[in-house]
């Protein structure tokens, strides 16, 4: 994988009031005191509105950029001391620009396998897995967006990395290809890989991620397990659909218990459910914006 040479982005060091990692592009503060850690073996989701700083964070974590201030550790050591052997433990899917346009899908895969010092024996299996066997000889420049995305993902995986950085891995994929990527990521996780993933797809985040960070304007505004995030924003209400009295919303208290009892006795209850927000609503509440 080609790595851009690390470069400083801002002539002076801009400190955050809260510590953590900061980065500015010119006068614009893009990351503002980021602090988080990713645990070995987990799938860590990084969500946020467009322009929040997700890709920039991946670039810092993969040493394509250098932070202005703050410390980053990779495999438990300062990232400045990361060796080539450390980088060999990493797979990166950022966009599809790392693919060679004039080579076929298979040639790209074989090239990446040889760059990574890997044998070629897994390539047929990988192509089959991503349903790319029939298109293996198609040149990248003639591939659809979904085919490119799948090919790029395979190139990121070809050396069986322990730590994967995936920037919107399912964008542009149809539902079947998306499900295939999800299955593949779940398998990698079961095999012990650590995954750092950005996505705009809340259902994907909920299904795949052990923990999620929500980032807005370069700051982390929430970090927890998907279910815990929803619970934090639970509105403490129950919603009852009745036979003749429409939909009732009750606050969870002793009075609600009496009402529910009376409704049940009168055979009025068609459905009862708690009113926890889904992740999409949590996100909207936190950021005031759609994904
Ligand atoms: N090389 C650069 N020079 C100047 N500004 C940049 C550069 N790269 C990113 N930015 C700015 O930094 C901010 C964060 O960008 P970033 O790509 O990290 O956002 P993102 O959260 O990944 O967004 P998206 O979901 O749209 O991919 C944006 O305002 C963007 O315009």
UniProtKB/TrEMBL annotation:
InterPro entries in the cross-refs: AAA+_ATPase (IPR003593), ABC_transporter-like_ATP-bd (IPR003439), ABC_transporter-like_CS (IPR017871), ABC_transporter_ATP-binding (IPR050763), P-loop_NTPase (IPR027417)
Transmembrane segment boundaries: none
Domain ABC transporter: 16-242
GO molecular function: ATP binding; ATP hydrolysis activity
Protein topology in the membrane: Peripheral membrane protein
Pfam family, one: ABC_tran
Cellular component per GO, a single term: plasma membrane
Gene Ontology annotations of biological process type: response to antibiotic
UniProt KW keywords: Antibiotic resistance, ATP-binding, Nucleotide-binding, Transport
Principal location listed in the UniProt entry: membrane
Compartmental location: Cell membrane
PANTHER family: ABC TRANSPORTER ATP-BINDING PROTEIN, ABC TRANSPORTER, ATP-BINDING PROTEIN
Name of the protein: ATP-binding cassette domain-containing protein
The organism of origin for this protein: Enorma shizhengliae
């Amino acid at each position: 994988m080609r790595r851009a040479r690390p470069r400083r982005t801002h002539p002076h060091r801009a400190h955050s009031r809260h510590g953590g990692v900061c980065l500015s592009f010119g006068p614009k503060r893009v990351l503002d005191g980021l602090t988080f850690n990713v645990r070995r073996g987990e799938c860590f989701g990084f969500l946020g509105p467009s322009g929040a700083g997700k890709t920039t964070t991946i670039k810092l974590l993969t040493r394509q950029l250098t932070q202005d201030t703050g410390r980053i550790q990779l495999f438990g050591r300062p990232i400045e001391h990361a060796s080539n052997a450390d980088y060999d433990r990493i797979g990166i899917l950022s966009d599809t620009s790392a693919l060679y346009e004039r080579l076929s899908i298979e040639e790209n895969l074989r090239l990446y396998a040889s760059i990574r010092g890997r044998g070629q024996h897994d390539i047929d299996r990988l192509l089959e897995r991503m349903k790319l066997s029939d298109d293996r000889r198609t040149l990248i420049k003639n591939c659809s967006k979904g085919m490119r995305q799948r090919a790029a993902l395979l190139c990121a995986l070809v050396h069986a990395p322990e730590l994967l950085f995936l920037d919107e891995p399912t964008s542009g994929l149809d539902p079947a290809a998306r499900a295939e990527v999800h299955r593949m990521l779940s398998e990698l996780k079961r095999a012990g890989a650590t995954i750092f993933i950005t996505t705009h797809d809340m259902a994907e985040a909920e299904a795949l991620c052990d923990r999620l960070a929500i980032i807005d304007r370069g700051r982390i505004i929430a970090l927890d397990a998907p279910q815990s995030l929803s619970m934090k924003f639970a509105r403490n209400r129950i919603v009852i659909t009745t036979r003749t009295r429409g939909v009732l919303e009750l606050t969870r208290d002793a009075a609600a218990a009496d009402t529910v009892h009376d409704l049940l006795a009168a055979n009025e209850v068609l459905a009862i459910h708690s009113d926890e927000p889904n992740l999409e609503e949590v996100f909207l509440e936190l950021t005031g914006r759609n994904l």
